[in-house]
Protein 1
Amino acid sequence: MPRANAPNNVAEELPFEGPNFFRLRVCYAVLSGRPIVVSAIREDEDNPGIRDCESKLLSLIEKITNGTKIEINSTGTRVTLRPGMITGGCVTLNCGNDRCLSYFLEPLILISPFCKQAMRIKLLGVTNAPNELSVDQIKTGWLNVYNRFILNDEALDLKIERRGLKPGGGGVVIFSAPVVRNLRPLIREKPGKVCKIRGQAFVTKVSPSLAHRAIDAAKKTLRDYISDVYITVDQRKGDAGGNSPGYGLFLYAETTEGVFYTAEAISRPKGENGDPIVPEDVGTAAGVALLEEIARGGCCDSSSQVLASTFMALGEKDVSKFLMGPLSTYTIHSLRHLQQFFLTTFKIDDFAALDAGKKALEADMRIGDPHKALLTGVGVGFKNLNKIII
């Protein structure tokens, strides 16, 4: 079984309350082999219990594992999960239109290296949604961090076959990942300087002229920062454009050290209350969001901090160091969950408090927020016992 050196009380159930961080708890339970009980899930709301997206996530976990037992009470306010063996393999799932597909991709990416068989997951649903991490950001930001921890990344890919926007969805993505014996320790302390900005304006079932207007607005926003900006247009027609019209702009900045910062803005979904968002506002919002990510600095963007910290904790019993921008609230809670499930903690240094030589170099290069966090930790030695050594 793909298990770490689990603590002696491995069979003891970990209790949690409320729906917050449901994905993290389910994902870490599967990886650690620790049973969990999540109670009081929206019990005081008019519509109590788990949502449709959460039930589909549990269904997905059942499909990629063998022997997992999930119990949900009649009201849906209490979930008990007893994880089994991680098998992986080929799975197809319709994820509905409530949440973006990134909601399901995040736990899949964290679990994927430790499967018995290489993952090839086909997900149907919404690829881009307002105020959610998009599939494009997962593909560019998360997979770049992922392949730093593994030696063989040939099978690592996230293919967007169809785009699907809210409310109709209709998007299709295929995620494939290799199987590894263990994750290697990593030292990443130099973010480098931004050398180019690239992006893609996507339109589904609307005029491509809207994409060009968004691109012009984004270039005006980024013009004073860097001149090397190149943005393409991804126009989807028919089935490839999903079931709802819309448009958006995805941007990423690449540094001299191979670090990627990502950002995205998207139009308001059809039928949603509020004034429509014009393409110029979408372009400006995407440009400003990217500049904010660049200003945070670090060796990954804010969304992939969870991936980096989790893989550091699951790595070999050796020291790993990773420089991040100011830690997001989600990352802080993920570190607390790592301590609960794997009994591992990190030393977190404020970059501004490091020695004067490094601060002087940082000030000279003007790379990001001075209050970045340098995470230092030793992995638990998590090994995939299903991986055959040739």
Protein 2
Amino acid sequence: MDARTCLIVDDSRIIRKVARRIVEGLGFEVDEAADGAEALSYCASVMPDIVLLDWNMPVMDGLTFLRRLRSQPGGATPKVLFCTIETAPDRIAEALAAGADDYVMKPFDGEILQSKLAEVGAV
């Protein structure tokens, strides 16, 4: 079986680094993108199994990326976890309506991330 893949989309290099360490520890091969536009072009060539997605980014935000991803061929496949500081229920509902599988509040740790990935059936 091929290794499962995860794309981490966040404009913070530190967040990407922390998330990478956690996800690689769970056995995933990891790639990174600094914004939604970069992530979208990545997904056009290689569709990951999981996307950890930041909400607020320059160029293209997480919600715009997610809507475009879900409309691409194969774009319904990846499990998408929003990793965000957004706590407003209407914002979270908006993310789920746009096609997110779940969300993780920042800052997160390995235990939280692993349990969320398990909830969406990714680990």
Protein 3
Amino acid sequence: MIKSCPIAFAVTALIISSQVAIADPGHSHGYGGFSAGEPGNAKRAARVVQVTMRESDGKMVFVPERVEVKRGEQIRFVLRNNGALEHEFVLASREDNLKHAEEMKKNPEMEHDDPNAKRLQPRKRGELVWRFTKAGEFEYGCLIPGHREAGMIGTVVVK
């Protein structure tokens, strides 16, 4: 008969939990997949859509607030934070963004390293390349606590 050893059990549990942490080193906005399509290929042609993030008259906004694309189209989002505050651009379904916004309230300094999201300091620029493989309505939002509530949401319509 094999005897159980509490120390061996604890060491095994520690090894398994550390391997799980290594397999998922950061938070993913995609929740195991991406609701709005898939990461694009930066080496391929893409339509450029410039999106500005800023504060204006007590609101936080994206300009433009709406973008229309064709299913299968690849877009290079050229992002510019013209505001005085840090902002982020998170591309997903409304449902996924609402779930993630709740997580952000608990951990507002959460680091992001996802193909569908970019956080920018004031007066900085960034890019995100995305291929829209699914038809429907999606959104881009700033999920920093308070920003979404201040109006920082945009819509992508994929036809």
Protein 4
Amino acid sequence: MKALASVVAVVLTSGAAVAAYAAFDLAATAKPTVTLGNEDVLEGVPDVGAIEGGVNLLVIGSDSRAGQGTGFGDPDEETAVLNDVTMLMHISEDHSHVEVISFPRDMFVDVPAGCTDPESGEEVWEQYDVKINSVLSYGGVPCVVKTVEQLTGVTIPFAGVVQFMGVAGLSEAVGGVEVCVAEPIEDEYTGMFLDAGNHTLAGIDALQFLRTRHGVGDGSDLGRISNQQVFLSALARKLQSDGTYTDPVKLYGIAKAALANMQLSDSLTDPTRMVSIAKALKDTDLSKIAFIQYPTGYVDAGVAPTESAELVNLALQNDTPVSFDPAAAEDATFTSSGDPNTTPTEEPVAETPTEETPAEEPATDAPAETTAPEPTQQALPSDVTGQTAAETRCSAGRTLADQ
């Protein structure tokens, strides 16, 4: 039935001439999937066209060297399976806004009960105050999903985990991404050396740009998150400007790359569902695509969510778009828009409310207005950093002399 659905979808979007090839090619490409246990929320979701309703999708970057060759250290020696990248993408119900939340790898979280050891298959105990990047090895992909669900208060029916070479493959599938570098990036750990200016990155170069920590900002994981947001915002601009979301051939290529390079949840087994999620983004204004660093503060040996994290959670739960405090951009030390070849797009400024003319007194028999209007935007405080896809920012590089 899944193969048949794939054929039908490809016929409708790409033409009958390539339908059979596409169906068998995608089926042969796919990796084994993982069951999250909450797929029932997707019953009734259509297979063709932009997906109806909202989407919550968790992207997990694993640092496992298994199957990655010897270019990232000895796979027999470096055997940890850590989710050093954990990102939640939320597409709103009406597809008018998108939030991508990056969770720092050293953030302390609670792990709920009901997780299963990925090695033994046995249920494991809940945990308290453990670093989020340890959850993948403790309970696998479903446990990372459960942990982020508990943290944010939203249901996440879609998930995918990608390793090093998978990131390289996905960046090649989109044709590379042009990024801006304000100061030179020099990182001996990843082999990333970039001069100031604009660079189109694909394959291993894109991977190392996303991995580099020592070569950007203050050398911390928080600096790396900001660097990743520079890349992702540039990617969002590229996909819209290239017309990728309306091009079935390009979408097919990306779906194939995802199937080949990621371990996906059962909910993403059907490539037509991936295409339908991508199509939901075709009309989203770039200024309404927000990349948010989950707000944390330093504690002993790591970071912990601050009170502002609850505002991010509420925005997700209420499906409300967010706006950044301009002071957050002024205080950010990990990005810069000072590249002379790039004109940054400023964050839209909220309109100043005009004075309201006093309304006439209602008639005595008229019902009084008792309900306040629903908020149309969640204003984030200055300790919540990030950017929109409409903003062109540059990576704040860090040379070897500064390390």
